[in-house]
Amino acid sequence: MRLLWLRNDLRLDDHAGWQRLADHHGETAAVYILPAHWRETDGNGLHRLGAARVAYLQQALADLRERLAPFPLTLLEGDPVDLLLAWHQVQPFELVTHAAQAPEEVNWLARLHDAGVNVQTFEVQPLFSPEQVEPLFSKFPASFTGFRKQVEKAPAWPVPAPQPAVNLGRLQAAACPLTTGIHWREISGEPAHPAWQGGESAAQTWLGHYLFEQKALAHYKASRNDLTGRYFSSHLSAALAWGCLSPRMVWHRILAYEQQWGSDEHSYWLKFELLWREYFHWSLRVHGRRLFLKGGLTGKAVPGAFNAEYWQAWCSASTGWPMIDAGLKELMATGFCSNRLRQNLASCFIHELGLDWRLGARFFEQHLVDFDVASNWGNWAYIAGAGHDPRRGRHFNPHRQWRQYDPKLTHLHQWLPELGPVTLKQVEAHQRGEQLLDYPAPLVPLD
């Protein structure tokens, strides 16, 4: 029997795993396993499955089941290796699954291999094939710019075309011998944005709407740092993170957009962001566990310590900095905040509060619907000076940032309506600890 183990590749299109099943002449099965430890809360009150993440995952799995019908998708919850070995003991199988990215996944696959399971891997997450990137492995570029210049040297680095979904009609389904199911907690409410509806069907619909109906890519570079709005960014990150969309499909759809309306700085910049994602992806493959150390890849991260008062204020969005609290409230309520907000939240967490950057990365991991292990940890390390930044960290001036990106306080009023009709100058004075509003005093005055 051949078993496909899905993880963050919840789609049919451009998916080598389904091709492996279609090519098999015997019985086949597909399984998604929710790791039980993702729900476990640690000593800092963190786990890996915030409500918005759970809602998206539920929707993505429901959509995939519907697209697969009548072929069944088995859902399990527990330790992935223990469950797969229990299945293998009753019904031996050949396991196919996408290649490991994070150390945790490397450990899972190694344990299965050591237990005698025949494990075959394939790629579904990156733009480029391992064969294309392999020349960089011995001396991986220390900066994104170095990587980008390498991959933009045509024609050595074409992005392979996405493969169409295979015909699954001839698959012979094998029954799972284990008790199946995932215990979902009750989730209420609709996604904060139509692009954040989980599943391949919704993701493909949004991609077509964004590019070809709304033509919102025409202003992408100019609007991507906005804090609010329906079309200010592509909103594709959640679908890419859970594998509901292939990055190769997105890339080639951008090329189709350029053929129809022409290429410019805006269409280039969305591809530029996909290359950033690609850089973080391969960096994690190369550096592995080093990224998760306090010193990160450089060993020179901004020193961070634990402060219980600051940490609790952060987790309750009561830092006394209205601009930051508004971003935290949005993140915890919706599982999303803009790229610009993420950078400012990380900068304040690391440089103003002096907290360990890895704690902030784990906080984001719990709440972000579009959590991607390589991009999230890579970006936090970048801000902390522990990653791929030749400037050894980024410290933003919060006042200057909000004068530029929320001058009319649109985002602030949306998420902190209790402030009332305040002005930007009043908010800045409060955050400096000078003229306090009817709002908690700042933990640390922002100069």
Query: Can you tell me the CATH class of the largest domain?
Result: Mainly Alpha
Q: How helical, in percent, are the residues?
A: 40-55%
Kindly give the count of domains: 3
Name the overall outline: globular
- Strands, total number: 6
The tally of helices reads 19
Q: Segments where pLDDT lies below 50 for 5+ residues? A: none
The fraction of residues assigned to DSSP E strands is 5-15%
Structural class: alpha/beta
Radius of gyration using CA atoms only: 23 Å
- Give the N-terminus to C-terminus distance in angstroms: 64 Å
What is the overall pLDDT average?
94
CATH architecture of the largest domain: Alpha Horseshoe
SSE string, helices as H and strands as E = EHEHEHEHEHHEHHHHHHHHHHHHH
> Do you know the CATH topology of the largest domain?
Serine Threonine Protein Phosphatase 5, Tetratricopeptide repeat
The main sheet comes to: 6 strands, parallel
Question: Would you kindly provide a written description of the structure presented here, covering whatever features stand out?
Answer:
The chain has 447 residues and is of the alpha/beta class. It has three domains: 1-124, 3-Layer(aba) Sandwich (Rossmann fold); 125-161 and 199-288, Serine Threonine Protein Phosphatase 5, Tetratricopeptide repeat (Alpha Horseshoe); 308-431, DNA Cyclobutane Dipyrimidine Photolyase, subunit A, domain 3 (Orthogonal Bundle), CATH 1.10.579.10. Helices cover 46% and strands 7% of the residues. The protein has 19 helices and six strands. The protein has helices spanning 16-22, 51-68, 80-90, 103-114, 130-137, 144-151, 200-213, 220-223, 237-241, 247-261, 265-287, 308-315, 322-334, 339-352, 357-367, 373-384, 398-405, 410-415, 424-431; strands spanning 2-6, 27-35, 74-78, 94-98, 118-122, 172-173. Strands 1, 2, 3, 4, 5 and 6 form a six-stranded parallel β-sheet that branches. α4 (103-114) links the parallel β4 (94-98) and β5. α3 (80-90) runs parallel beside α4. The longest helix has 23 residues, at 265-287. It is globular and about 75 Å long.
